[in-house]
Amino acid sequence: MTFGPSTSGLPGLGCETPPVNHFVSEARLPSPREGCPVNRELKFPDSDSATNQPGRAIATQAIPTRANASKASAAQANAAEHDGTPVGDPVIRVRGLRMSYGSGNGRADGARGVEALAGIDLELYRGEIFGFLGPNGAGKTTTVEILEGYRRPTAGEVSVLGVDPYQADRAWRSRIGVVLQESEPEAELTVEECVSLYAGYYPHPRPVLETLELVGLADRPKMRCGRLSGGQRRRLDVALALIGDPEVLFLDEPTTGFDPAARRSAWEVIASLQKLGKTIFLTTHYMEEAEQLADRIQVIVAGRIVAEGTPATLGGRNVQQTIVSFTLPPGISTVDLPPAAPWAVDGDKSGRIEAETTRPLPVLGALANWAQARQIDLPDLQVLRPTLEDIYLQLTQGTR
Ligand SMILES: Nc1ncnc2c1ncn2[C@@H]1O[C@H](COP(=O)(O)OP(=O)(O)OP(=O)(O)O)[C@@H](O)[C@H]1O
Ligand SMILES: [Mg+2]
To answer: Which of the listed residues 87, 194, 252, 275 has the most CB atoms within 10 Å of its CB?
Structure first.
């Protein structure tokens, strides 16, 4: 990252340290607002150059007008239509995307690099939350970075808001927001100064204090960024991604390090952004997060998409076996049980009786009749459907 000599010392911010950390590139920052003292001090190279660097981008329009909002909700209805199969033009469209690190140009020894993406397709529609799941090293961040315009793919077609991200200009960058998987705060700035600084880069930023409120940092605007805890820093990352009011948000593991309450608040924030018509690309290792938020999910393993669906249908979750289980009452033997299901003793769970079935209702009916006729109770009766995590583990098993 290069700053001109005039970048140290930021009038109005009371800070001697250049406020932009190494994750924020000049190429990816949007056009500074005219008259902003902060921005007059910063030197940015030509925004249309293709020298994209990692960065926290960027954003845009004010909160949607009523007309926009109704358009957004119509689009959102599109996104959620039927069983999660959206209609309309995609906001993000990817075809045959490949990415190899360390191969090709500049590799004199001809050695093969790491094939991070082996030809993936995906589409995101306006107003939907798209969950991108996969084990460590599967290619999620690589995909996100390509969609943000930071990385040039080895092959394939990529369109985000109708534009090839790697060739995109400032106007495009001002329409997306990013929470990077890793970031560093502007240590010497206070939270409010930092968010105000970023607000200055956007044509129509959100109000700073309202944004801090949104991410749960309103109670510490004067705290230095360098003193924030891990989870608080992550909230700041989210605030910085939101401050420009982007149309499309890339959230790469946005709640890592959050305590459970903070994670739930973040979910509310993300869900509220969807209500404003934002399109959200979310990667996460928290299956509950994906289940709560995502309209559609794709699972990537070793650079290939292995499954796609809604949280309810992914990997055939909706048609997988249900497990009915209970502890056998004293004096009752398995041979006494109604023949409605293949009852077996689960060796792992202190002798509980269980049966797998695709038709739990008749099994439960027979079991209830049987127990009532004998006047016995089954107080720890459980009916378990596969969780999203069960499905995810099935899909990704043996890939590590
Ligand atoms: N800059 C790089 N140079 C070389 N290889 C890289 C680079 N970045 C990522 N890789 C490799 O590409 C593959 C995909 O990495 P990526 O970061 O996209 O995975 P991920 O799905 O985001 O993983 P995680 O869940 O751990 O964040 C991995 O094998 C990784 O080692
Ligand atoms: Mg990653």
So the answer is: 194
